[in-house]
Amino acid sequence: MADNKTSVTIQNLEAAFAGESMANRKYLYFARRARELGADDVAAVFESTAEQETAHAFGHLELLYPSSELTVERMLEMAVEGETYEYTEMYPKFRHLAMEEGNTAAVKEMDEQIEESREHAEMFQAVLAKAAKRFAALAKVEERHAGHYQDALDAVKAGKSAA
Ligand SMILES: [Fe+2]
Ligand SMILES: [Fe+2]
Predict the structure, then answer these.
(1) Distance 87 CA to ligand 2 centre (A)
(2) Where are the alpha helices (DSSP H) in 37-160?
């Protein structure tokens, strides 16, 4: 199998994941508008379909990010990475191009998103730091336990009581 960076299938799964995710949010947005327009039955169809799109997106995610490989730390790291990319690269570039096109509404939107993504990155970073501390404390406890077992084992080997 090709590695993940060059695999066409992985790229297709990424694109399919993006498409299904967008369909989910778009249908929920359409549902809200349909309700405003008094078309509750149509809204309900959009809402139930949106739920199925989420299931499709999750199916793709399971192949892209197998849950067996996802630790709490890894997920937080990826979240920090994604939000940092958004506020340091993606939105600043989009903002610049919106400026050039004179689209002031879009510039304002990008400014808000830069702020929000920065807040999200900081929040995830803080949660990650907390989790890392907890893991370090747990590792210490485990180390102590392992030490006790080793002492007991040594005692048994030496022919003494392991109490
Ligand atoms: Fe779908
Ligand atoms: Fe965000």
Answers:
(1) 9
(2) 40-64, 72-85, 91-100, 104-157
CA–CA dist 39, 32 (Å, integer): 10
Residue 58's Cβ-side half-sphere holds a number of Cα atoms within 13 Å equal to 7
pLDDT in tens, 122-141: 999 999 999 888 888 888 88
- The span from the CA of 116 to the CA of 86, in Å, is 10
Nearest-angstrom CA–CA distance, 131 and 126: 9
Residue ranges with CB less than 5 Å from ion ligand 2? 117, 120
pTM above 0.70, yes or no: yes
CA dist., res. 21 & res. 58, Å (int): 9
Residue carrying the six token digits 């169809």:
45
Interval between CA 163 and ligand 2 midpoint (Å) = 54
Contact 64, 16 (CB under 8 A): no
107 is written with which tokens?
Answer: 């510039």
How far the first Cα of the chain sits from its last, in Å, is: 53
Contact 142, 120 (CB under 8 A): no
